[in-house]
Amino acid sequence: MPLSHPRRSALSEQVISALRNQIASGEWPVGSRIPTEPELVEQLGVARNTVREAVRALAHNGLLDIRQGSGTYVVATSELAGVMHRRFADADPRHIAELRAALESAAAKLAAERRTEKDLKQLGTLLERREAAWETGEAEAFVTADATFHLAVVAASHNDAMTAMYADLGEVLRDWLRADVGAELTPETHMDHRRLVDAIRAGDAEAAAAEAGSYPFLCRPGRFSARSGD
């Protein structure tokens, strides 16, 4: 539905908000190309300059990446996620692994104590989806399924601050996983998370924390760069 037409500055903010909502809702997932400028003009019922201004604003904030000759792509789901992605783009991969382990271990411990039946059903579904993605042999499909599963584990902690922080780090962690599994899925990079789900289901907080905190370090030989000390 076309947007209303208040004064120009307010209209620009409306368009920015509309585009941001498309990203935050998952309508335009990370990695996807957004509609072209003419398509957005038609969808929103605003001038080309207003759309261009909004897209540039979201690119400046780190949500979008304008690639000349290719299009505009979603690179983060929020301004903070964009900042996180830029901040940790060149981080030592071991440090990212340690950060992931620390966050997920703490979250899994809380999840074992607070999970609901709805959480358990969701975890079971996403675990099976993760395994199915592995069976396809498509690395990117597996990265997406794995990231979705782990976010659900953190969400089951029912700690909103922890869940928001983990979500904002999402693309950083996906980059780490892409590098870890490589272009092709191989048996040595597969991790079975059934014990993690079982521990959460059983309410065993210590076992859940141990499971979540151990798997990031089971990486392929030579995974880490020389600067990490390996």
UniProtKB/TrEMBL annotation:
Tagged with keyword Glycosyltransferase: no
Record flagged with keyword DNA-binding: yes
Name of the protein in its database record: GntR family transcriptional regulator
Species: Streptomyces filipinensis
SMART domains: FCD, HTH_GNTR
Annotated HTH gntR-type domain residues: 9-77
Coiled-coil regions listed: none
One Pfam family here: FCD
Keyword annotations: DNA-binding, Transcription, Transcription regulation
GO molecular function: DNA binding; DNA-binding transcription factor activity
